[in-house]
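Researcher: Next entry in the queue.
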Amino acid sequence: MNRSASRGFFRSSWAFLGAAAASVVLAATPSAAVPAKAPYEAPAGARAHAARGCALVYFDLGETLVHTDEDSSTGYMPGAAAYLRELRRRNIEVGLITNVPSSWGDTDAERAAALKKEVDRAWKGPVPFAWGDFGDRVLTPRTEAERKPSPVLWKRAKADAHGCRLVYQAETAEETAVAASLGYVAYRTGQPCRPAYLPARLIERLARGF
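Model: Structure for this entry, 210 residues:
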């Protein structure tokens, strides 16, 4: 994919399926948010870690945390920088599950480095994107077949969660529906009459099993 084509990868072309059917919020019943039985059994140590309370919050990137303007410049979505700061203050770990061309690298680290370069090249505003918050939790497709809405990336994140409660936030109904089907607490961002993002205090309650 050439550079001019890659600039548009943040823009979603998926049709909205309806917020009620495609996103799971904390007000939903527990059975709707998380399956009664996970498709795998976490190790005993991981289950103990989860019992003490932990949550991992994964995000889509484009039009969820980062907006691309008509001139191809990029910047934070409204409220995104403050929300990430709030999660950081509460010691809630975050990650990214985002589509980039698989040709951008042979490993997640290589593709993440290419993504960072692409975003930073066009970044505007005095506050840079908080890449340091995400560490090595930037999951990208290894092949074009793994691109979302394929469930592969969410399954990879789940396998590395060590029993922690998983949250996924994105602006598209299709992605939140897939995440919810895999046991994530899925929240569709940017909807009218709702918080832009799932409130951090509710994520803390999820981590404690409420």
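Model: The chain has one domain: 3-10+23-207.
Researcher: Noted, moving on.
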